[in-house]
Design goal:
- By secondary structure, the protein is mostly beta strands.
- It has no helices and eleven strands.
- The termini are far apart.
- The protein is globular.
- The strands form two sheets. Strands 2, 4, 5, 6, 9, 10 and 11 form a seven-stranded mixed beta sheet that branches. The chain has a four-stranded antiparallel beta sheet with strand order 1-3-8-7, with no helix packed on it.
């Protein structure tokens, strides 16, 4: 079972950039598709982005397309979320996620993850 630990959250200003990192444990890290979700108090956790096991395919939620980039380095067991042009509505706790290796990589299946990190707070101040 994979374990995930996020880092890189913080307080930034509107328009700033921030990069989140997530390190996964285990020798089979490269077998998992990975994703990022976010959650604000009182709302459900929502999908942000996902990347296939090889890094060759990605999906993004519509409001972050063109601003956020998900990437991975399997040699370092790490997935990243580069966030540019941040807006106040991006404020949330961001969670790293992994998907069971048997799942097909599609926008539909990536809405539900199987393993979670503990979350990291991102606050965008206006």
């Amino acid at each position: 079972q994979i374990q995930l630990v996020e880092s890189g959250g913080g307080l930034v200003q509107v328009g700033d950039s921030l990069r989140l990192s997530c390190v996964g444990s285990g020798p089979t890290f490269s077998a998992y598709a990975l994703g990022w979700f976010r959650q604000v108090p009182g709302k459900e956790r929502e999908f942000v982005a996902a990347i296939s096991w090889s890094g060759g395919a990605t999906f993004y939620e519509d409001t972050v397309k063109g601003r956020f980039t998900i990437s991975r380095d399997n040699a370092k067991n790490t997935v990243y979320l580069q966030m540019n042009s941040l807006k106040p509505e991006d404020t949330a706790v961001y969670y790293c996620a992994a998907y069971s290796p048997w799942k097909a990589f599609s926008i539909a299946t990536m809405q539900t993850a199987d393993y979670w990190g503990q979350g990291t707070q991102v606050t965008v101040s206006s």
